[in-house]
Automatic annotation (TrEMBL):
One of its GO terms (molecular function) is oxidoreductase activity, acting on NAD(P)H. InterPro entries: ADH-like_C (IPR013149), ADH-like_N (IPR013154), ER (IPR020843), GroES-like_sf (IPR011032), NAD(P)-bd_dom_sf (IPR036291), Trans-enoyl_RdTase-like (IPR047122). It comes from the Eukaryota. This is Enoyl reductase (ER) domain-containing protein. It comes from Agaricus bisporus var. burnettii (strain JB137-S8 / ATCC MYA-4627 / FGSC 10392) (White button mushroom). Residues 37-386 form the Enoyl reductase (ER) domain. SUPFAM superfamilies: GroES-like, NAD(P)-binding Rossmann-fold domains. PANTHER family: ENOYL REDUCTASE (ER) DOMAIN-CONTAINING PROTEIN, HYPOTHETICAL OXIDOREDUCTASE (EUROFUNG). The lineage of its organism: Eukaryota, Fungi, Dikarya, Basidiomycota, Agaricomycotina.
Length: 390
């Protein structure tokens, strides 16, 4: 029978038979930091997925700022080697015995944090089901490269707003009901960042009506399209005055997210925050006036802030957001990536941010190029992803 007359089921079976399934004795290439300041190419075992896991053939993976701290400063590293890459987009190869809603050949995008076996810059990665968004529900025009840009910052944004800040979690998005604090001003400082973009969008979809954003001027139009009510240039000499004007006077803001979390951004926020207000800092907090990462960087990874660096006063509620703990919320663990993200993408309510693809040279060279872009602050409002599969 001609292939064009095969049923869809037969075609699917044919594809599955042609997919290379690694054996327990297989190895594959991975990129890891093996010592402070060192990145190497390794051969690592291709593991079998456990009962609540899937094995994914990786197409693309995102590199994020904490990885620069890991490589350059040894932060967050308990034991070397540590494989790099904090997202995965790719194809499911095998599923664990408890997995009923994913199968081989399904497309997924995942937030690949945790031990090295979960990380993204390797040819095959085991992933817990709870961090996977089924990509077959993603519109066809969202490619593997675009899909790799989304899960980590989306999870960060949702967790920050609806867990850490305790805003009521909407039953659906767009929300069907107006939340209690819908008209209260909420400031997203550094909204041009990819996490800030998703926060702005999620607040709008949740029917908040007074979303204030600071960002470089080049991001203003896009942030307005996402739902920002007021957008200000954080470099403006009148920034504090401008924010106070739209909130009705000084120190009227009761809720702020600092997406940058540097000493300069905290000092500005302290000038507009109510003394008893709440500020969520995306960790780590960076000393100094820039985001440059070097050997002298002193990163604060836990709260409370040292007294000399805390501009908020004793009565302010200062929250340190560490997205890697988001699955301690059982609702988010069960629904955020497995259900909420695919639904929003399917409806076209959120989209991939701008991004750059590192696809030239060896896999190690691509990873090092991505790290250098972050290390030297060459990215603004965009992600950097590494092409893993050739």
């Amino acid at each position: 029978m001609s292939a064009r007359y095969l049923s869809m089921a037969a075609i699917s079976q044919k594809i599955e038979k042609q997919v290379f399934l690694p054996t327990e004795m297989s190895t594959h290439t991975a990129i890891a930091t093996t010592a402070k300041g060192v990145v190497h190419t390794l051969q690592v075992p291709t593991e079998e997925p456990q009962e609540d896991e899937v094995l994914v053939k990786v197409e693309y993976s995102a590199v994020i700022p904490p990885e620069v701290y890991m490589v350059d400063n040894g932060k967050y590293v308990e034991q070397y080697p540590v494989i790099l890459g904090f997202t995965v987009s790719g194809t499911v190869m095998k599923v664990g015995s408890n997995i009923k809603d994913l199968k081989p050949t399904d497309r997924v995008t995942t937030f690949s944090y945790g031990p090295s076996r979960y990380k993204g810059i390797q040819q095959y990665a085991v992933q817990p089901r709870s961090v996977c968004a089924k990509a077959c529900r993603i519109p066809g025009n969202l490619s593997f490269d675009a899909a790799a840009t989304i899960p980590d910052n989306f999870a960060c944004a949702f967790y920050t707003l609806f867990n850490q800040l305790s805003l009521p979690m909407p039953l659906s998005l767009p929300a069907l009901e107006t939340p209690p604090l819908a008209n209260s001003p909420i400031l997203i400082y550094g909204a041009g960042s990819t996490a800030g973009q998703y926060m702005t969008r999620l607040l709008y979809l949740a029917r908040y009506k007074n979303i204030i954003a600071t960002a470089s001027a080049k991001h203003h139009e896009y942030l307005r399209s996402l739902g920002a009510t007021h957008v200000f240039d954080y470099r403006s000499s009148t920034l504090i005055e401008d924010i106070n004007n739209v909130v009705g006077g000084s120190n009227k803001l009761t809720m702020v997210v600092d997406c940058i979390s540097a000493t300069t951004t905290m000092n500005n926020i302290a000038k507009v925050l109510n003394p008893t207000g709440t500020v969520a800092l995306l960790m780590p907090v960076k000393k100094g006036t820039t985001l440059n990462v070097d050997e002298e960087s002193d990163l604060i990874t836990t709260l409370p802030l040292p007294d000399q660096l805390n501009p908020f006063g004793e009565k302010a509620n200062v929250i340190g957001v560490r997205t890697f703990f988001y699955q301690e919320d059982t609702v988010l663990k069960e629904r955020l990536l497995p259900a909420i993200l695919p639904e929003l993408l399917e409806k076209g309510l959120i989209e991939a941010p701008r991004y750059r693809i590192m696809d030239q040279g060896s896999l190690q060279q691509r990873a090092e190029q991505a790290l250098e872009l972050l290390r030297t602050n060459q990215l603004s409002g965009e992600k950097v992803i590494v092409k893993v599969s050739d």
